[in-house]
């Protein structure tokens, strides 16, 4: 094995892999990131923005400020080029942050380096072997070891030992293929081209999007001096090996828009389709998938990068607890149970957006109807919450501990989670019944915690500030009273003090606002997972047995 080991090996140094590495290293896990490309691709930027929930998860770790400084906020987004207004979303980040992927990756890599993550460029995963105690990863080395460690940098093949391997290596994931995980879905039906170019005669509006007789065209002003031009032609699929050229993009622009806007000096050219595929399972033994390795789709609404970063934040703390021996291996099954339905929903809405982009008369009539509906605040809020992922809800009933849901039994691993609320309408119908959850808990259980101001003994603090160390938080909103319902939880919290922080505070507002749920009164006590989702909440009479069960489910047994 060449003498190299790590507790967790991550394949891929894109946004998903880097965010996962940060999460694991913050929790004290020894992590090694393998990147096939020897150099960072600074000219290439597939994604161009970050949505509200992604900004929130960065805020939860105290690392959002550099991204906000580097990006440009826009007050809304779109659903198939129909405008959405984000300004009234209940979040501190009610906007789209325009920021190219290459800059996102650079900021994440800088943060990962500060945390002590080992990154090895020029190292491609070519094989793997699993056992009951770990996984061995075969790597083809082009040269140069991790962080310049020349002991392992000689070109050739070698094996690296790890406890777990996570494939964050893109839509053509080698890890997914080597693990034998299926990639089910639908094939491409169109051809889209993208070019980052200079334009002599750009459109007047910085975000130009139109449907024309022969397809759609978008011209986006990302940074001074150049634009991103994207064209879509329906019912034709280019060959995978067909070259991508500036002349090809120019011809598509002339066909669709009647002009090429004076394009020249391309920085990057690419072509893609609307294939929508998803890994049948996100976990196979000690191998897991995240980001594009787990799901690919047409980039409608700018959701792909955000989906991958949120995969990483869901997985990181769980994997850290398992690696450190605090939680059973079965906790990792909740990663698939929670994130597979979220990914499936993104595939569904991007398919819908692609269908709405077609240029026939029937689709034009349908778009006019939807545009009229989007003038209603509730409809705008519903679609905006979905595109930004602020409405994501996870079932908190510990179903991942049920052996019947394990892939080895032949059942589709996502079926149970999907039936428990994988769609937005299903979630609302299940959760709300006269203002209370049907399962007896607070209506916010399963949703991300609102980032409200709290009054604690040391002064005011935001909820997200309590999550900076990626630990669980048992939040008692009794104002620190010596006696009372919430005070009874202090003894229980002490049994998980190595994994969960007990915080006594007083809410600064009597009502909390949340997507989907709306205005609710805050609970007396709540358990917040490291990813910001509420695992348990209680009213005036605390359910102590429920608190113990939730702590055990999500953080493993109490310490002895």
How would you summarize what this structure contains?
The protein is built from 14 helices and 29 strands. The chain has 560 residues and is of the alpha+beta class.
Name the features:
six-stranded mixed beta sheet, alpha+beta, 28% helix, eight-stranded mixed beta sheet, globular, 29 strands, 28% strand, 14 helices, 560 residues
List the helices and strands and how they pair.
Blueprint: E1 5-11, H1 15-26, E2 31-35, E3 49-50, H2 52-60, H3 65-70, E4 72-74, E5 76-79, E6 82-85, E7 96-98, H4 101-115, E8 118-121, E9 123-130, E10 135-141, E11 156-167, H5 174-178, E12 183-186, E13 190-199, E14 207-212, E15 215-223, E16 226-234, H6 246-257, E17 263-272, E18 276-279, E19 283-284, E20 287-289, E21 295-296, H7 304-323, H8 333-356, H9 361-373, H10 377-388, H11 415-419, H12 424-431, E22 453-456, E23 459-462, E24 472-476, H13 489-494, E25 500-507, E26 512-514, E27 518-520, E28 525-528, E29 534-538, H14 544-555
Parallel strand pairs: 1-2, 1-11, 2-8, 11-20, 24-25
Antiparallel strand pairs: 3-7, 4-7, 5-6, 9-10, 10-11, 12-18, 13-16, 13-17, 14-15, 15-16, 18-21, 19-20, 22-23, 22-25, 24-28, 26-27, 28-29
Helix pairs in contact: 1-4, 1-7, 7-8
3D structure, described in words:
With 560 residues, the chain is α+β, with helices and mostly antiparallel strands. 28% of the residues lie in helices and 28% in strands. The chain contains 14 helices and 29 strands. Strands 1, 2, 8, 9, 10, 11, 19 and 20 form an 8-stranded mixed beta sheet that branches. A 6-stranded mixed beta sheet has the order 23-22-25-24-28-29. It is globular, with a radius of gyration of 24 Å. The protein starts with a strand and ends in a 5-residue tail after the last helix.
């Amino acid at each position: 094995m060449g003498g190299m080991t790590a507790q967790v090996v991550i394949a891929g140094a894109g946004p998903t892999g880097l965010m996962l590495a940060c999460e694991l290293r913050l929790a004290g896990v020894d992590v090694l990131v393998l990147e096939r490309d020897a150099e960072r691709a600074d000219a290439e930027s597939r994604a161009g923005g970050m949505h509200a929930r992604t900004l929130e998860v960065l805020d939860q770790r105290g690392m959002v400020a550099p991204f906000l400084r580097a990006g440009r906020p826009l007050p809304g987004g779109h659903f198939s080029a129909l405008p959405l207004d984000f300004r009234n979303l209940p979040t501190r980040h009610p906007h789209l942050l325009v920021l190219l992927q290459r800059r996102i990756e650079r900021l994440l890599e800088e943060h990962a380096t500060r945390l002590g993550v080992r990154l090895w460029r020029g190292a491609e995963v070519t094989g793997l072997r699993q056992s009951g105690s770990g996984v061995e990863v075969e790597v083809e080395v082009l040269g140069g070891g991790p962080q310049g460690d020349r002991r392992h940098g000689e070109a050739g093949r070698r094996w690296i030992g790890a406890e777990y391997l996570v494939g964050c290596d893109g839509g053509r994931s080698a890890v997914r293929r080597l693990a034998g995980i299926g990639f089910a879905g639908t094939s491409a039906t169109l051809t889209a081209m993208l070019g980052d170019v200079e334009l002599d005669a750009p459109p007047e509006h910085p975000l130009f999007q139109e449907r024309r007789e022969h397809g759609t065209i978008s011209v986006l002003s990302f940074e001074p001096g150049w634009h991103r031009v994207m064209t879509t032609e329906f019912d034709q699929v280019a060959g995978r090996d067909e070259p991508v050229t500036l002349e090809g993009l120019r011809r598509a622009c002339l066909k669709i828009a009647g002009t090429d806007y004076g394009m020249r000096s391309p920085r990057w050219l690419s072509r893609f389709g609307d294939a929508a595929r998803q890994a049948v399972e996100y976990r196979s033994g000690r191998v897991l998938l995240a980001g594009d390795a787990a799901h690919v789709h047409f980039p409608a609404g700018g959701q792909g990068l955000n989906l991958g970063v949120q995969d990483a934040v869901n997985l990181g703390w769980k994997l850290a607890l398992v690696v450190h021996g605090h939680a059973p291996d079965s906790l990792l099954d909740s990663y698939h149970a929670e994130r597979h339905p979220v990914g499936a929903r993104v595939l569904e809405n991007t398919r819908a957006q692609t269908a709405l982009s077609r240029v026939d008369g029937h689709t034009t009539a349908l778009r006019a109807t939807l545009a009229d509906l989007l003038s209603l605040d509730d409809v705008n809020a519903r679609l905006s919450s979905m595109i930004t992922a602020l409405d994501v809800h996870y079932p908190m009933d510990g179903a991942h501990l049920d052996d019947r849901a394990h892939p080895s039994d032949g059942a589709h691993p996502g079926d149970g989670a999907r039936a428990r609320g994988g769609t937005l309408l299903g979630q609302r119908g299940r959760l709300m019944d006269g203002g209370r959850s049907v399962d007896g808990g607070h209506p916010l259980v399963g949703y991300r915690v609102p980032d409200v101001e709290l009054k604690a003994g040391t002064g005011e603090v935001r909820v997200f500030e309590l999550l900076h160390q990626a630990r669980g938080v048992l939040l008692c909103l009794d104002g620190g009273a010596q006696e009372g319902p919430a005070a009874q939880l202090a003894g229980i919290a002490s049994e998980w003090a190595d994994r969960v922080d007990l915080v006594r505070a007083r809410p600064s507002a009597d009502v909390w606002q949340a997507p989907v749920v709306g205005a609710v009164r805050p609970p007396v006590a709540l358990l917040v997972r490291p990813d910001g989702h509420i695992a348990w909440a209680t009213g005036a009479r605390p359910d102590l047995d429920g608190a113990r069960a939730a702590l055990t489910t999500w953080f493993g047994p109490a310490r002895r």
